[in-house]
Amino acid sequence: MHLRILLVISLAVTTLMLTSCASNPASPNREPATEQASEQIAEETAAEPDESTGIDRRALEAEHRVLEEANRLRQDGLQLAEEGDLEQARDLLDQALNAILGSGLAPDAYPALFDAFQTISKEAVAIDEELALAEEDVKESTLADELDSVDPEEVENKAETKEAPPEITYDLPVVLNAKVQHFIKRFQTDRRKEFAAGIARSGLYIDMFRQILKEEGVPQDLIYMAMIESTFKVRAYSRASAKGIWQFMSWTGKRYGLKINSWIDERSDPEKSCRAAARYMRDLHAELGDWLLAMAAYNGGPGRVGRAVKSMKTKDIWKISSTSRYLRRETRNFVPAILAAAIIMKQPEKYGFGDAVLEKPIKYEKVKIDSATDLRIASELAGVPVSTLQELNPALRRMITPSSYPDFELKVPVGKKETFEKKYAALPPHKRLKYTEHIVRRGETLSAIAKRHRTSIAAIQKANNIRNPHKLKPGQHLIVPLSPTAGSVEVGSSRVAVQAVPRGTELVHTVRRGENLYLIAKAYHTTIGSIARWNNINPSVTIHPGKKLTIIAGTTASDSATTKISNNRIVHNVKQGDTLYDIANRYKISVSQLKQWNNLRRNLIHPGDRLTIYVKGGGDDSN
């Protein structure tokens, strides 16, 4: 529900795209989407440059039209993403990319077009990541999900609006009107069980949240937003794909500094997500000038609320929410529900929740983790059960700390920090793992991955929270439990001492007695030829004990280059940052050809994908 802030940024980006059309564009070399489009673009781009400016006016006009169409589709897609419809949003962004690629204009010849293409590509990747992550999260209804079941217009003003009881202090403008009273009654009856559980759960975090809200200079009573958003569940996941105690959508969470990927989701980190929510609320208040409006915008988006304020010429949330013209039902009910929660939780005995016992505040210390570390090993170093570390670190999506997060801090029980740090510093990085990393390639199955890494399908499913083993996606990151013989691998009747490291890790292997290139290559899931290339040695040479070999575990030398299959057929191994346009441009082919040869419906590719390419001259001439 918090993707709305992205639209503000998007409008600025769009404006820049439409006003920064490049001068002196080169001749297009892209295939047009249709014959008619081809003729139109050819006619426009064949125009002579304006003698006074040197700019090809018709080419710029063509570029401007393509940008307008791409950005129209992009904005519609972002709006759908804001509303939680990620599948439709992804389709529209794909159409936006097609509008550029099928225009007959080469993006690299038109800087504004190129910028648009790169921006939309990144947004499409972000949505794909969110779709992949959404499949792993279990949807769990929240009180906010129920708000659209109440019709505000049916809640009659039977009681006069009055201030909250004078004996209770608030730092928000709390009132007891009919809408607030309706939700108080609802929480006492229909939603009593869920509300009581939320009161008890709030004890874990409420002291910490108050301190964070105070440090960020926002009202401490904003803490009651968390009750409506999630009933203080760290892994609450709504039907709109918002997650965590403060129910951030991934886009807004990243905007406020939360890391969200296949390894970690800091929307589930109580401390970091609370600080992000406080800063977001502070920004919304600065924009709208009223805390109740800011609360409504947190749910419905600052754009909608701002337009309502402008149209109705008032900042009175009660007047604005009295009509269905501007705000959705859920947003109109969001503020009175929060105020009702605040009133009840300030006086739980008065409202029938006196028997709710608050859980003890969560306490922890933080230790810096500078390399990927198995939680089972971390638990041994800390001298606590693995489940304790999982409870203290709910943001971790796997049984392993992130591999590319050098400043990651693991939370450990109070009193364990010093002991942990000493033991951790003495443990070499390759001994901190009982897992390796695998990036799914197109067409791979969980069975094949398990066989390759000598483990079981069930073990991989458990480690990655995979419910459906048939729904793997290219580019998906998996952690694979190492076999019990990690540290040594049997190859035939021989055994090779190996280092337990993630796939793609460069290491130095010291040859031991009885080992040869074949055994070492098999043990590290690579090839003799690859080891020979990495070490500049003859693949048939005899290696001796003590020799040091550079190896990139789980990969081959061809992973970083093009594999030649025949005189005119090659296979390109997709790397991080590759796009279809970049690859097509490199091999002097069209994106449509690339998609046709590889049966691609969309423009998105993933690291690890292998693309078949037919070229003239027998290979890549860009090297």
Notes on the protein architecture:
With 623 residues, the protein is mainly alpha-helical. The chain has five domains: 4-136, no CATH class; 144-346, Lysozyme (Orthogonal Bundle), CATH 1.10.530.10; 365-431, no CATH class; 435-553, LysM domain (Membrane-bound Lytic Murein Transglycosylase D, Chain A, Roll); 561-614, Membrane-bound Lytic Murein Transglycosylase D, Chain A (Roll). The protein has 24 helices and 13 strands. It has helices at 4-19, 35-45, 57-82, 86-101, 111-136, 178-188, 192-202, 206-215, 225-230, 250-255, 270-288, 291-300, 302-312, 317-320, 329-346, 375-382, 386-392, 417-425, 446-452, 457-464, 517-523, 528-535, 580-586, 591-597; strands at 162-163, 175-176, 365-368, 409-412, 435-439, 477-481, 488-491, 494-497, 506-510, 548-552, 562-564, 569-573, 610-614. Strands 11-12-13 form a three-stranded antiparallel β-sheet, with no helix packed on it. A two-stranded antiparallel ribbon has the order 1-2. The longest helix is centred in the N-terminal third of the chain and has 26 residues, at 57-82. It is flat. The relative contact order is 0.08.
